[in-house]
Design a protein that fits this description.
By secondary structure, this protein is α+β, with helices and mostly antiparallel strands. 28% of the residues lie in helices and 16% in strands. Helix 4 runs parallel beside helix 6 and helix 6 runs parallel beside helix 8. InterPro entries: F-box-like_dom_sf, F-box_dom.
Amino acid sequence: MDFQDLPVELIAEVFSELDLQSLVTVSYISKRIYLVASDSSLNPWRRPIHAHLRDNIYDSTLKHLSVRSTVPRQNWIEILTLARPSFLLFDATLPNLKSNEWEECFRRRFPPSWLKWRKDGAWKEVFLKCALFNFMSGCHVHEISPPRLDRVLYRVWHRGTTSCTSDEAWTKYIVLNRNGSANELEITSRNFNPLAIFHELKVQNNLAHLETRVWNIVDFVDFRILAFGTMAKPNTPASVNINAHMLLNPPGMEPEEVRNSPMRQYVPMISHNAVDDHGVYPVAVGSNSPVTPIQQLSMSTFTYNRLNRPCPAAGHSQYPFHTPGGADSRWVNYADVEEGYRWVGSLMVVAQILGPPDSEGVSHARHYCSFEWCDLWTIAPWLDEIITSRVDGQGLGH
């Protein structure tokens, strides 16, 4: 039997194991092969394209893939979602996509708060453009002209490679308070130092003697979400921040080794208002707990769904579920929890821009961007019905 006489599904599966350059070559061998390669339902291109993006291979084959008639347009949604900004801005030949496809690219790549840059522009424009801004003195940008640019991808690349903050003068962040409320605060971008800000929060909570713990909640292509908090063995339940636990260790999302731990044998209190907390430490616990019942929260059954808008990086691809492999570090504090430590005081949540990768493919974070309410509900929608009060600016939330 000739290879071309095989079922098209089998041919496509074989093609998906080829490298990208080889697949480009064989896709033009015959009319039947051409039809198989260009069939959007079979799509043998997805696997080799993902391999290139995962390994940071940005060669000429990927650069000019849009000119190949055998490549279904849907693959460019993946490329525009996952490829590094400098490649899309300065190297790639971009395809012609429909407006709804550009919208999908934007929503899968950028945080929802960045929709503010769209205004009345088209979706292609909002993906490639941002509000016009002037370069500030001291910004070292090469090979770009004119000196006024309005691209969102350029904005990401520019913020990740320079200290310029002219496009976002104020940086917003969110603080989860131990009383169940939350505040959206802001500070000038030039003075935004999350460690210094959180130290002030520790002083206000009389926790300056505790070590600041920085937790990586989830990574995306261009940015990541960080949490700044403190852990201690609380003397009273009032000092424990339940919302910090619910954000960092969402109930039912823990890895297998945590799920089988003796710590999970605590029996929840029987109450119509209590929560069956499947997380690393209970919301309401039995008398054998080292900490008295913290508080009772009213929470309906929440169904978790894997986040895809925006799309997490490979190391957090299953978020909010636990992603095996070591990059998802949300439960690495479990040994401390077993010893009686809890999140105490305030928890600060910020967004950090990831700079371009170095020669080893490691991306270094340099600067921060705003993290707003809509971003919090996106990465942790279960908090929407738990946070008791939402305050814009300073305030106690009463």
